[in-house]
Amino acid sequence: MDQQQEPRLPEAERHDHSRVRGEAARQEHGPLAGFTVGVTAARRADELTALLQRRGAAVLHAPALRIVPLADDAELLDATKELIARPPEIAVATTAIGFRGWVAAAEGWGYGEALVECLRGVRLLARGPKVKGAVRAAGLTEEWSPATESMAEVLDRLLTQGVAGQRIALQLHGEPLPGFVEALNDAGADVVVVPVYRWMPPEEPGPLDRLLDAVVARSLDALTFTSAPAAASLLTRAEERGLLGEVLVALRHDVLPVCVGPVTAVPLQSRGVDTVQPTRFRLGPLVQLLCQELPGRARALPVAGRRVEIRGHAVLVDGELRPVPPAGMSLLRSLAVRPGWVVSRAELLRALPGSGRDEHAVETAMARLRSALGAPKLIQTVVKRGYRLALDPTAEPTGA
User: Fold this and answer.
1) What range defines the domain where residue 265 resides?
2) Greater model confidence, 350 or 173
3) Contact 184, 155 (CB under 8 A)
4) Angle of CA points 354, 357, 359, to nearest 5°
């Protein structure tokens, strides 16, 4: 035997070595390599995009909304003057950006010190750590903050302690809180809402339209939401374009909807779309959840002595990342529906978008697919019948 040639390993050992190489390569490329993730965030989109790209994902970003500050808004000014004139017993701060914006707007009107002094003497509730940070940056101290960052828990605490005859200032976070104000009013409270900013549709809908088209085309593997208004805005735009039904089907079955928390998920769940959410409502845990969910849903097959893992826009062959053109991915997914079975050229032709009736398009796309995979023997040509994945008969497929 040539000393430079490695001895051929038994079948089981070859699969073990393949698995070890695959794990090492996945660590090198990142757990999200080969997947495309949509980002709908307006705020902190750069941070979320960087976290995803650092783990190997391709990112398609389109803000589903824009934030309109109300620094010159008469409604905010009137609410601020009313509270300074008649201070509340309780104040609820719901978002860090909203609370900071309120104080900044008051300073611009010459009421900054008066507002801070007004809030210094009240029971101040802050929804979550970021809001606590904004409160303390203003020189104030919160009385309580829920561990869950849930407004429902804030409401439960207020109602349990009793609010009858109490004046409550409620800083809104861009949209009304369904049932929140009504529940407090029913319990005898006098609620003054403080609308610091509003969510509005994006001025230029082009990027959001492209994101919706990607959802319908299933060229996204996951779609992330960091606020309920963003989810509602995306669905509204889909409805305006006549795509709502197709978008909902895609989100229910093919594109994974990931929300930062249960409040964010409400607009989707009200449309029958199940979502996944991290246990901690932060961007970091959201990305960690994607790193678990997407690879876990990828199809992994033992083919021709290799481990082939089919991802969104790429394939891991023994852990080596191989980008594949969209036409090639369409063919590969068709072959992987029943791995090892022959798929006819006619059936593969139907899987190719915009290919017409020319079966030569299948041969061209197949040649490019084999070249992209870097291992031509993974796909066998069955003369006069079609193509098949060279599935290892003794190995068990894994993955979704």
Assistant:
1) 31-65+203-295
2) 350
3) yes
4) 100
